Amino acid sequence: MIALRPIPAERLGDWQRRSLAAYADGLRSSGLGAGEIGQHVVDSAQLLFPNGRLRAGHEVFDVLVDDEVCGYLWVGPSLWGDDFYVYDVAVDEHARGRGVGRAVMETVEEMARERGHRSVGLTVTDANVAARGMYELLGYVEVEAVQGRGFLRKVL
């Protein structure tokens, strides 16, 4: 059984640093150079973490499986449209292949509906074949592809 628990405020700074580092790692598979990756990370940090804080309306959760933290989820309204957006989601390796990712995404869709959104959007790198396959099985459709990343959307 999975559950989501808000990450405590005192852990948000560490989470933010890890999230930006993971974003940079993901961009490395896109063919961008180090300078471009660094600029993307700086631009994203300024946009998504104004004054170093989580943007209004955004939430970050620990993903729990049987009360054990097995990943995290960052969601909020899209900055680019009307979607409820999955800014980042990660399931620890030892918990993969057990339906945790699927359960998290089903919970995201419930959250989106509760908040009045009609669609959920996310971005996934082309290199993340397993995640992309799961999203497609759940009904997400690629609506745009840029530099080794696909923007996927599911209409609810």
From TrEMBL:
<dbReference type="InterPro" id="IPR000182">
    <property type="entry name" value="GNAT_dom"/>
</dbReference>
<protein>
    <submittedName>
        <fullName>Ribosomal protein S18 acetylase RimI-like enzyme</fullName>
    </submittedName>
</protein>
<keyword id="KW-0808">Transferase</keyword>
<dbReference type="InterPro" id="IPR016181">
    <property type="entry name" value="Acyl_CoA_acyltransferase"/>
</dbReference>
<feature type="domain" description="N-acetyltransferase">
    <location>
        <begin position="2"/>
        <end position="156"/>
    </location>
</feature>
<dbReference type="Pfam" id="PF00583">
    <property type="entry name" value="Acetyltransf_1"/>
</dbReference>
<dbReference type="InterPro" id="IPR050769">
    <property type="entry name" value="NAT_camello-type"/>
</dbReference>
